[in-house]
Amino acid sequence: MNDDDTALIRDNRNAPPAGYGGRRTIRAADADRDRVVELLNVAYSEGRLSKDEYDGRLENAFSARTYADLDQIVADLPAVPTTVVNPVAKVNGLAIASIACGLAQFMFGPLATIPAIMFGHMARHQIKRTGEQGAGLALAGLVLGWAAVILALLLVIGVAISAGMHGTMQMH
Question: Is 149 within the bounds of a domain?
Answer without folding.
Answer: yes
